[in-house]
Amino acid sequence: MIRYIEFADKLSGYFGKAFAWLIIMMTFGMSFEVFMRYFLNKPTPWALDVSFIMYGTLFMMGGAYTLSRGGHVRGDFIYRLWKVQTQAKVDLVLYILFFFPGVLALIFAGWKYAARSWSYAEVSINSPAGVPIYQFKTIIVAAGILLLFQGVAQVFRCILAIREGYWRRAAEDVMETEDLLIKQAAEKAAQGQ
Question: 73, 93, 102, 186 — which has fewest CB within 10 A?
């Protein structure tokens, strides 16, 4: 189970970090559009659609990474007061009842949706440029498969937490700026004493 958890975390981390670069591309694309529209008075017909596609891709492909790092929003005001075993049992039930059916529905419905889109090389109806969007719809299936892999890892985490009494967390690879500053301040204070 531990090896699978590590594998799924690395896989989710790889895709999450790779697709995070879309933020840079979106920034350049929108900056180009602003320059063209407001300085040269020649707006591009494709910029809005491309920004939607990149943002949607980033959002979907980052889901498994966020799940692996415990970054999704949850009702911690009660949950955090429970023992680890209780948390793990509740999480396990919720994964089985809600997560897996939802993810499987995403994969199967997304597959049909993407296949239909590929069959006629769908383009955006909102863009005069006719930006192709069939490849974007394939991301729905890919994101669902990544979530499925990571969901199995989360179930294994729950089982191990029930047995061992502590959560196995993914390796820390990023930190919130506020947490980093608090950690640095604590280290400086410890060095000063």
Answer: 73
Instruction: Tell me the two tokens of residue 155.
Output: 């179930």
Distance (Å, whole) CA 135 – CA 60: 14
Per-residue pLDDT of the chain (193 residues; tens, 9 = 90+): 889 999 999 999 999 999 999 899 999 988 998 999 999 999 888 888 888 889 999 999 999 999 998 877 777 778 888 899 999 999 999 999 999 999 999 999 999 999 999 999 888 887 778 888 889 899 999 999 999 999 999 999 999 999 999 888 877 776 678 878 888 888 888 887 6
Distances, alpha carbon 125 to alpha carbons 52, 58, 110, in Å: 13, 22, 19
CA distance 62 to 58: 6
pTM, two decimals, is 0.82
* Of the candidates 56, 48, 72, 64, the residue with the CA atom closest to the CA atom of residue 22: 56
Nearest to 86 by CA among 161, 10, 172: 161
Residue found under tokens 């009702």:
75
